[in-house]
UniProtKB/TrEMBL annotation:
Domain of life: Eukaryota
Organism: Aphis craccivora (Cowpea aphid)
The protein, known as: Neuroblastoma-amplified sequence-like
């Protein structure tokens, strides 16, 4: 099925991504492509659940579209039209992440803080009955697994939004080490407990993401002469706005290229071997 956009499918969740330079063109494009999808579903003897279908507009300019719903018109009578309608929403939860129309991530991070806060009491109880090694396993499996989910996307939020989450993590590390709230240097606490703080955890997650995708972006050495420290760099997808520099397709290569040359060489060679293996 051909659409004027991109379809993203994961399990039973489907997204149709469209873009345009103005609201009216976007509305027309959305209606046209939705009709194509409904027609394809009818051919396959399937139906679309309009109660669970939503439409959200992304804009960094805080401007809202001049319409509140998308009507998939299939009749010529406007007065008694019973054609399906899709309501516009300002936020939506998709695959465990809460997206808002301005991509600010405030709502998702606040929801994450509340979810992780419910674990604090359990950790208070368990600190009296578990060993140090068991503590770390519990922390990684219960707390960090939730914390780092989708981090490569929502970590672009502002420092003020992320600060409460960082403070919560610091407090939990002290609980795990059976320390009072203000005892010990924060960074040393992480070193002693052998886990990563929020910022370093983000860099680790980003590097793992880039490692999986890096063979798509490696700079060809014969394109132009590079110094030795840039031979194993990957392409940085430069953007025209500072907003675009908050995303993984920009920050990922930037963080990767800042690694020591020996580390990048080993990763580069690994990716070359993987590429040869699957050719």
């Amino acid at each position: 099925m051909r659409v004027d956009g991109k379809i993203v499918v994961y399990a039973d969740d489907t997204c149709l991504l469209l873009s345009s330079s103005n609201w009216e063109t976007l509305r027309q494009k959305t209606e046209l492509n939705f009709k194509k999808i409904i027609k394809w579903l009818n051919i396959k003897k399937l139906s679309l659940n309009f109660n669970k279908t939503m439409f959200m507009v992304f804009s960094i300019n805080y401007t809202l579209p001049p319409f509140e719903e998308i009507t998939l018109r299939d009749c010529s009578i406007a007065s008694n039209c019973n054609c399906p309608k899709i309501n516009i929403v300002k936020r939506i939860k998709y695959l465990g992440l809460i997206f808002d129309c301005n991509l600010k991530w405030n709502i998702h991070i606040n929801s994450l803080i509340v979810k992780l806060r419910s674990l604090m009491f359990k950790f208070h109880i368990l600190k009296h009955i578990t060993s140090y090694h068991t503590w770390r396993i519990i922390y990684l499996s219960l707390y960090q697994s939730i914390l780092q989910y989708g981090m490569v996307f929502w970590r672009e939020a502002s420092i003020n939004v992320l600060k409460p989450l960082s403070v919560q993590q610091n407090s939990l590390i002290r609980i795990c080490q059976k320390k009072d709230n203000l005892i010990g240097n924060t960074l040393l606490n992480y070193v002693e407990f052998n886990v990563l703080p929020l910022e370093l955890l983000y860099k680790k997650s980003t590097l793992m993401f880039v490692y999986k995708k890096s063979y798509f972006f490696f700079i060809k050495q014969n394109d132009k002469p590079f110094g030795k420290d840039r031979l194993c760099n990957i392409k940085v997808l430069f953007t025209n706005t500072s907003f675009g520099q908050k995303f993984i397709n920009y920050l990922g290569p930037v963080i990767f290229n800042a690694l020591p040359i020996d580390v990048k060489k080993n990763i580069f060679n690994d990716q070359i071997n993987i590429k040869k293996k699957y050719k």
